[in-house]
Structure formats: C-alpha cells, structure tokens
Recover the amino acids of this structure.
C-alpha cells in the first residue's frame, strides 16, 4: 500500500485528554511520533507524546505551525471549531474527514443523516422555540428528552420532559441554544459497535459490547454483548453502511438500542469511544491502534477478540479503588494521568479478563 | 500498602532504548510520569516520556537534577557506571538495588553467586592471561567460549574455542579485558523465566518461554515452553531463590538451559528482558508494568497467561516485513521508534496470538 505512512512519520492529534493519550501510545507502538494540540495546560496526552502545542483553537499561527509539523491530523473529540479545521485542512489531511464532523457535531443533522440512510432512530423533531417544542411534543409525546443540538456529551445539555407541562422549564435549560426533542425508545439494553474504515475503504468491526450507564456516564462495557446472530450481523451491516456513506477513515463508535423490533441507532461518535476500551486487553489490535492504522493508511486489524472482557470506568473517587484492583488477578488498570480528582471526571478504567463463562 | 507510590509520582529511568520506552508506557498506564536519563540524543523512550535528560553518566549536575526530579529510579540496562549509581543513590532509591547490579555486571561474580546458591551453571573459570586460560581449558575442555567479564550483550565480546589451539586468538579478541571461560552445556532447548519480586518480598513469575536465537540474538520466544510440570516448578523455585537472595525489587530475566540432568542457569538480567515481550499480549499485567509495580511498591500482577503467544524480533531489514505483518490476523506489532535501520539492530518485535494448539 503506497499510501502507508512509514514509521517515523508524525501524527497530529487535536485534543490532549485520555483518548488522545491512548491514541498517542498506540501510534508509538507502530513507530510513529505524535504531536498533541490542546488549549489546556498539562494535557494527559502530553505525558506520552513526543511534542505538545498548548494553544487555543483560534491561534492561527499555532495551528499553522502544528499542521506543518505533522503528516496527518486526527482528533479525539468532535467539537473542533470549523475555522480551525478549515485552516488545518489547507495544510494537511484531516482524518476522519470533514463530513463526519459536520454530521456528528449537530444532533439534528446526525439523526436526519441516519434516517436518510434508512436506519432506525428515536423519533425526533427540531426545536427552536416554545411553539416548535409544543408541536414536537404533540408529535412525539412524553416522556421525551430535550437536548442541545451541539456540544453535548455525558448527559450534559439535556433536560427530561416527564409531561407536556415540563416544556418551558426544559427549554429554559437549553439557554437559548438550538435543540432537538427526542422520544424515548423502549429497549432491553444498549450495545455499541466500534467500527473502522481504512483509507482503501476496507471496513472492520470489533465485537459489539453491552453498555451500562450510571448518572448519564458509561459505567461498564461487557463483551460479548447479548445479541442474537442476526442482531450481530445487523449491527455490523448498519455500521458499515454509516462509514461508507461518510467515506469515513478511522474508528467510529456507534451506540445502538436493542429492541424487539430491531436495532435503533442512538448516536455516533467520529472517534475512538469509551465503549471500545475493552479492546486494549481483548484484541491483538485495539481501537486506538485501529484508528491510527486507518488514518496512517495502514491495513486494518481484523478486530477478532481472543478473550472476553468487562471494562469498567473509574470516575472521580473511584480512584480510591485502585490499590484493591491492583491486587486482583486478570485486571488491567489504565489510568489517565489527570492531576486532579473531580466528581464525575473520568480518571481511568480497568479491563477485567473473563476466563470461564 | 503505605509504600505504594501514588499516581502522579515520577519514575526515573536510566537508559532510553526500547526497554525504557516500553517501561515508560507501562508507567503511564498506572498514572505515573517518567523522566528518561540517556546520553544519546533522541532516545526512543523520549517519544513517550514526560521528560528527557540528555547527559553523560559522569555529568554530576545532570545526575543530581535528575534524581531530585523523580520519586524512584530504575534502569533498562545493567552496565551503569558505579560512580553514577553512588551519586543517584544518595538522593533517591534505586530499584532493583545495587547488589543485583554488582552481581550481574560481572559474569564471574554472577556465575559464582549462582553456584554459591546451589544452582547449576555451565563450568567456568577466571581468565586473566594465557596461563590461566590454558589452565581453564585443561579443567573445562573444549569446545568452550571465552567471554569478557563485563559489558557483553547479544553475543558481543565473545570468542569460541573449538580446540585448545584457539586459546591465543580467543584471548586476543578480549583486547586485554578480564575474561571468563565457560564450558559448553549439552541442552535440548533454552527457556527463560521472567520473575518479579515486590517491595514486600512477594514473588510472581510469568510462564516460562522457549527461546530460539539466531546469530547470537534472540529470534523467537514461544509460550508455553516445552517443560515438564516438575521442570516448570524447578524454574519458578530457582528464580525465587535468586530474587530472594538479592533482596531484589523489580523484574528479572533468568535464562535456563534444559538438560536431561535438570535446569542450568545460563545468565540473569536485572531488568525487563526481550524474552518477556510476549507478556504484552498474553497477560493482563505485562513484564513492563510488573516492573513498574514492583519499583513503585505496588502489588504485583499474578502473571497468569490468558492466551498462547509467539514473540518474534524484528532485526534490521526485518522492518520491511511490517506491511505484510500488519495484514495478518492476531499479530500485534511493537516498533521502537528508532530513526535508523542498522544490521543487527533491534527495531521492533511482534506477538502472534495462537488460538488453536
């Protein structure tokens, strides 16, 4: 493959959090060095990267110097300002590409995109004011959930409507931001599929994992997920459908609700995903290396799992569990090097290898 | 365990090669940052370390500043100058400790130490000049191998004697360095055991691996090794014997010859070891993390293997195999980020996961 970046090339990563950190380690494993671009000081990814630029996303000189110093640019989060992307893209390829970012940066665009692909989503409607919210409630019913169209993650920027009377309070929570009303879906459990697409269009999926959330944040992912063979096939096909439609290059996380009527797409994330961390201890090529392989034009790993895994996040004070976890067999601890423990902050995770099922 | 270094602490690593690199990644996984001390410019470990000092081992100011910046000091190679160790040890703990370095820096001291522990070694004799070499040949016979007592690795500083007449030429190869004559051992195969001992004296061993060398350099390690249950027990017991005798803290590689008369200790290395690289893809806690756990006063991982693995080194031009290896299932590639490919240079390795045996 002539498009393969050779070892020694530099991967630029926008964002210096734990995902950038684990991408950086994976890139090093393939002989690449990494350059992290992050506005915040002392980013976790910087501890394992060759180079760090601390600068804002509107610092044009810093962006330009960053782009000039790398061979390809990727990112650990989807909410990168458009102007920064425009400037960077003029210098170096950005992978995954702009279309994936455009779609996933806006919940309304994303849901419409998925529906237009023929995939099932929760019922949704555009909300710009109280009138459109009331119309949306009439169409979708309650309970429902109002979400900002942009910049939401881990349950932030969301308000639940138990009944139509909650409309005004929920709208106030949006603080004037454009929003989307989503109906609730009756589902038995949530799974996610971590899918990758190479520069040559090849698609590879890891085994779907089953997710449990607590307080709106991922708590555990268990692999294998409870899925019938046909559900498993559906999950792979719909993920491939999404990636192909976006001419996607890299790893994407696709969250799915499992219902008696089939799989419903909850959301997509154009990046490595918390629910794919189990691959670090379950596969020869983990999601981070898979992403780096894709953006570097390498062949993808095949995603085969050689052991069952339960991943559990360490949030805030869960860090106090680390000494006990370190004593347990078959537990692989992954900490993020964050200086300060805060409530609700993802501090690390661990993968428990399951031998006897 | 009150001796446990908390995440956020700094591990100092002497040596910036591939072992320091993989130690650095393992330390980051436990939330530590690393500071590499290395005389050579642009060390591979520096690409994934928080901090690098480029300075010689006789630069007292640099050594002092390095020691002051870290919480504990470890190393990736055993031939660190004594004066540097003296200075560093006055500031911070060095783990594994000085006794292990004293013993392993000198082949004669090492062999004597092992014999005094009641372990089997190849026959050996001190060689200081032609007379003592001739006496050694009389006692040990030929074929035999003459080795410098210090600074030998990967077959360097060695000369074979096929017959007594080779004595003078072999001695000339030593270039005046103190040497040791070792007799050949009839063995069926070589195995190595990667053993660890914690700050609390706990010992844990990984499963022994079977080694094949080419041109004096490790070629492959296969796990599990061909060993009877009693040989396996012997290997663990003798490794524990060595570690306990040295009040050792950290990971040690112990190379063993398998003979009909039992196991013979070939050599010990007071550090992580090339023959332990398979643990990266076979165990929840690999040898690098195991070493960091020990030097940081953490509980050891138990070393259990969840899958069979064959590790193969990528030497020099083997780098050309990488694109093909990247296409193969169940192959985990680990490259070292070395800028220049040289004949005989270790550029990386790969672990092949074996499912059906």
């Amino acid at each position: 493959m002539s498009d393969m970046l050779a070892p020694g090339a530099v991967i630029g990563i926008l964002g210096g959090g734990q995902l950038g950190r684990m991408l950086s380690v994976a890139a090093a494993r393939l002989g690449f060095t990494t350059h992290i671009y992050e506005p915040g000081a002392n980013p976790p990814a910087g501890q394992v990267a060759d180079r760090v630029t601390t600068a804002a996303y509107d610092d044009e000189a810093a962006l330009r110097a960053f782009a000039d110093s790398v061979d390809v640019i990727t990112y650990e989060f989807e909410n990168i300002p458009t102007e920064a992307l425009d400037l960077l893209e003029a210098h170096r390829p950005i992978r995954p590409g702009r279309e994936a970012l455009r779609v996933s940066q806006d919940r309304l665009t994303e849901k419409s995109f998925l529906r237009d692909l023929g995939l099932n989503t929760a019922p949704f409607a555009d909300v710009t004011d109280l009138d459109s919210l009331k119309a949306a409630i009439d169409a979708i019913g309650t309970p429902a959930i109002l979400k900002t169209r942009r910049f939401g993650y881990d349950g932030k920027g969301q308000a639940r409507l138990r009944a139509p009377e909650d409309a005004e309070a929920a709208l106030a929570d949006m603080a004037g931001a454009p929003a989307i009303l989503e109906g609730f879906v009756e589902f038995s459990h949530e799974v996610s599929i971590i899918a990758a697409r190479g520069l040559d269009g090849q698609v590879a999926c890891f085994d779907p994992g089953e997710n449990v959330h607590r307080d709106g944040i991922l708590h555990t992912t268990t692999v294998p997920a409870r899925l019938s063979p046909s559900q498993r096939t559906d999950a792979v096909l719909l993920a491939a459908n999404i990636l192909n439609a976006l001419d996607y290059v890299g790893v994407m996380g696709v969250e799915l609700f499992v219902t008696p009527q089939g799989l419903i797409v909850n959301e997509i994330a154009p990046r490595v995903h918390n629910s794919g961390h189990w691959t670090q201890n379950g596969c020869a090529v983990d999601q981070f290396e898979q992403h780096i392989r894709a953006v570097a034009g390498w062949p993808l790993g095949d995603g085969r799992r050689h052991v069952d895994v339960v991943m559990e996040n360490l949030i805030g004070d869960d860090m106090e569990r680390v000494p006990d976890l370190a004593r347990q067999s078959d537990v692989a601890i992954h900490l993020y090097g964050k200086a300060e423990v805060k409530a609700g902050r993802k501090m690390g995770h661990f993968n428990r290898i399951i031998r006897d099922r």
Chain B touches chain A through 48 residues (CB under 8 Å). The two ends of chain B are 41 Å apart (CA to CA).
